[in-house]
Write a structure and sequence with these properties.
Blueprint (H helix, E strand, L loop, with lengths): L1 H17 L1 H4 L5 H23 L4 H23 L6 H21 L2
Length: 107
Amino acid sequence: MPYVFLVLAIVAEVVGTSLLKATEGFTRLWPTVACLASYGAAFLALATAIARGMNVGVGYAMWSGLGTTLIVLIGALFLNEPLTAVKVLGVALVVAGVVVLNLEGAH
């Protein structure tokens, strides 16, 4: 069950981060409200996942790492941000770190 909340936390964080540009520096009301609500939902879901037994280090690593990976992909696919070799390498390292933490957490 903690993983369901972790997935919800990742999705909410990705939505909030995707809305940052639309807030125009938090000067536009409704995109700002949606962005902050998404971040609030993300933290609530992450806290729930941890309260239900998920290891804090593994949960946070998965939340931030997978969220970062998704944001890089969204930036490349929908926000016209370049996907460079350095970004691909960075994402691969993030994913590798999450995998290693999960392997350690399984023992």
